[in-house]
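Journal club prep, notes for RB
We'll compare a predicted complex against what the paper describes. Inputs for the zinc ion case:
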Amino acid sequence: MGLLTIRKYGDPILRETCQPPNEISDATRLLIDDMAKTMYEYKGVGLAAPQVGVRERVVIVDSNQELICLVNPEILSREGREVASEGCLSVPDVEVDVKRATKIIVEGLDREGKRVKLTLDGLAARAMQHEIDHLNGILIIDYLSFVKRQLVKKQLLKKRPRKSGTPVRGRNAIFFCEIHMRDKSKLKTGRCHQITKWTQRTRNGIVSPTKMCRN
Ligand SMILES: [Zn+2]
């Protein structure tokens, strides 16, 4: 079992609509186990597959020391409405008031591929609705007003860590490939010249130039 990397706001996979897996295989079960390990490590109450870079309709929720995993979850009915504050491991340091049903009936497949129908309320119902949103490319910030959303988006993009290989200063600054960016001790051997495509944000939008490692 391994810890997975949580994809953060700005990663395009978080905006995709996920597909049902073809079958529930050992790979699906391994994904569920790794997702659970990751969720507990980061103290989340739920996690959806796209948050760990997998475009499949798989979610897990644990709101009360009981792990629920569902493949292809489908909400059959909703009852009650309540506004409460939510956070998200993919949208760090942001809390958003979201109105959700207080009780839901959800159907899906369990880790063995058996069809199950669950009645959830309280935090479990809220977390399940939040995770199903992820499968449809919806994030908590989408529940904010337009003006607030723009503000939060700007803050989130500013906070993103600098990508390896990003030049340190200026447009024509020296570029290093990921390996040489990480391992500076190998610099100045002058033999790499690896050409990498990467994304650059400029005044005119986003461009994807190719650059040659100057090591
Ligand atoms: Zn989330």
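Talking point for the session: The pocket of zinc ion is lined by residues 88-90, 130, 134 (CB under 6 Å).
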